[in-house]
Design brief:
The protein is of the alpha/beta class. It contains 14 helices and 13 strands.
């Protein structure tokens, strides 16, 4: 299988139930990660896949695993997919419904933040041995502790966004879950980055894994990037001007904190911009309602924290605005990866205050490129980075403006 030239999904020779689902969904040509990963997984190898969001990695691991489940079914939980957030869990679950539409495979998604009724529904499905389970670590452990989730027959274990799960402190939870699974299994790990801690983690879980890497730490080529150098006090004015100037039907603004997201929502609404914020503070039902409105274009502007930078699959987002520079350079890649999905084009703009210049320089170093500085709207002076002392390299207290010289 791995030596076949792959030009079309038919070349993978999937079981007809899987191929029928792909045909229904209009899937024709695999993406690079799908072309590389699917044969490796079909051959039964463990795999470490390094790929950023928007590359098609969900189908890369779902399709070959589903194909094996159709070919050799069991009446219990066969596959467990562990993810960092409920948004990513739902995204994978939704993709799964299309891929296995013509099969008899059963599935269940489990995540926290829901009511008792949802928990009971999850429990019922798990006790009946849902073939594929997708969930977040905390909720999975809750079901394991109550005896609802049985992993003794597990054949496939998948960790998606592994770097994110480590950053969020889920290591012990993941190891506890995996401790309940058979040692003889196929394990697949996907991560947007591959720092030493991920490799060390993979060494504990995977057996002689194959490794593939797709476009690590590079934004999509079709994203037009730009920087507005402004002071914090001017960011609102630039945001309102940019939103009205572009007048796009689908825009995400990323802020650094939940409090700032809520405040920006209020400020934009005062400026007659139809915007709503979403963060982990909202109840799951509220978050889903906001996302539905955004997906359907009833809500043109979404203000978000980094809970959305990974794991949300929303097509045709025209523009991403980084209201705050992310602290992690990799998060910048994931934020702007929300636009220019598939073959579409997109725009991404970042507001950089003098205090944030160091963080943005690290982002440019990661991408190995300089981002163009955009002209500010009328009435907003351009703030330059802090001037540095020739003696010790430390920033001076004064900073400079394009207009008016020193302040």
């Amino acid at each position: 299988m791995s030596k076949i030239l792959i030009l079309h999904f038919h070349d993978f020779l999937f079981e007809y139930e899987i191929q029928d689902g792909l045909d229904d969904m209009g899937f024709e040509t695999p993406t690079p990660i799908q072309e590389m990963a699917i044969p490796i997984i079909l051959d039964g190898n463990d795999l470490i896949g390094c790929a950023q969001t928007g590359t098609g990695k969900t189908a890369a691991f779902l399709l070959p695993v589903l194909n094996k489940m159709v070919w050799d079914p069991i009446a219990s939980t066969d596959t467990l997919i562990i993810v960092p957030t409920r948004e990513l869990a739902l995204q994978i679950y939704q993709a799964l419904q299309g891929f296995c539409y013509h099969t008899k495979i059963t599935s269940q998604v489990v995540y926290g933040g829901t009511d008792g009724i949802s928990f009971e529904q999850e429990k019922k499905a798990l006790l009946h041995g849902a073939n594929m389970v997708i969930g977040t670590p905390g909720r999975l452990i809750a079901h394991l502790n109550m005896g609802n989730l049985k992993l003794e027959n597990l054949r496939h274990l998948i960790l998606d966004e592994a770097d994110r799960m480590l950053d969020m402190g889920f290591v012990e939870d993941i190891l506890k879950i995996i401790g309940k699974a058979p040692k003889k299994r196929q394990t697949l790990m996907f991560s947007a980055t591959m720092p030493p801690k991920i490799r060390q983690f993979a060494a504990k879980l995977l057996h002689e894994p194959k490794e593939i890497s797709i476009a690590v730490s590079k934004p999509a080529e079709r994203v037009t990037q730009g920087v507005f150098r402004v002071h914090d006090k001017d960011k609102n004015a630039v945001a309102v001007w940019l939103l009205k100037e572009k007048n796009l039907p689908s825009v995400i603004l990323f802020t650094g904190t939940k409090a700032k997201a809520r405040q920006l929502e209020r400020d934009l609404q005062k400026a007659k911009v139809d915007a709503k914020s979403i963060s982990s503070d909202l109840e799951q039902k509220e978050r889903e309602e906001v996302l539905r409105a955004f997906r359907s274009r009833r809500l043109p502007v979404l203000v978000a924290t980094d809970v959305l930078s990974r794991g949300i699959d929303i097509e045709d987002i025209g523009m991403v605005i980084n209201y705050d520079v992310p602290g992690d350079a990799e998060d910048y890649i994931h934020r702007i990866g929300r636009t220019a999905r598939a073959e579409s084009k997109g725009e991404a703009y970042t507001f950089v205050s003098p205090e944030e210049n160091g963080k943005f320089k690290r982002i440019e170093q990661l991408m190995e490129m300089r981002v163009n500085v955009m002209p500010n709207p009328p009435g907003v002076s351009q703030a330059l980075p802090f001037a540095r002392s020739a003696e010790n390299g430390k920033p001076k207290k004064k900073f400079f403006h394009r207009k008016g010289g020193k302040r």
